[in-house]
């Protein structure tokens, strides 16, 4: 089992609270929308990730628990690479 952060691109309002609470896994793009680190959350970030989810004023940040199977892993990206923003745009 692994936990992965997910942002609801419709609900996210770009408050940026999540990036303040979990800078190890969330950065903000130039418009203030979150960029999530790729891959499963490290175990030591689960607790702060849950805090960030609870603190999101728009209830747009989610922590999904998924089995580590090939199907659920999705596109493979090296750890630490930022993959996209809440608006579906591509990150660097
Ligand atoms: S996920 Fe929540 S806290 Fe993070 S930028 Fe979007 S609305 Fe703000």
Description:
The structure is a single chain. With 92 residues, the protein is α+β, with helices and mostly antiparallel strands. It has a single domain, classed as Alpha-Beta Plaits. The chain contains three helices and five strands; from the N terminus they run E-H-E-E-H-E-H-E. Strands 2-3-5 form a three-stranded antiparallel beta sheet. Strands 1-4 form a two-stranded antiparallel ribbon. The protein is globular and about 30 Å long. Iron/sulfur cluster (SF4) binds next to helix 1. The site of iron/sulfur cluster has 14 residues, from helix 1.
Second-tier CATH architecture:
2-Layer Sandwich
- Biggest sheet strand line-up: 2-3-5
Mean pLDDT: 82
Distance between the termini: 28 Å
The major sheet is characterized as:
3 strands, antiparallel
Report the order of strands and helices.
EHEEHEHE
Helix content: 10-25%
Structural class: alpha+beta
């Amino acid at each position: 089992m692994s936990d992965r952060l997910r942002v609801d691109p419709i609900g996210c309002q770009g408050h940026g609270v999540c990036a303040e609470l979990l800078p190890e896994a969330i950065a903000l793009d130039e418009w203030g929308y979150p960029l999530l680190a790729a891959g499963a959350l490290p175990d030591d970030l689960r607790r702060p990730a849950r805090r960030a989810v609870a603190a999101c004023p728009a209830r747009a940040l989610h922590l999904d628990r998924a089995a580590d199977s090939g199907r659920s892993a999705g596109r493979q990206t090296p750890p630490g690479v930022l993959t996209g923003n809440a608006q579906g745009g591509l990150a660097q």
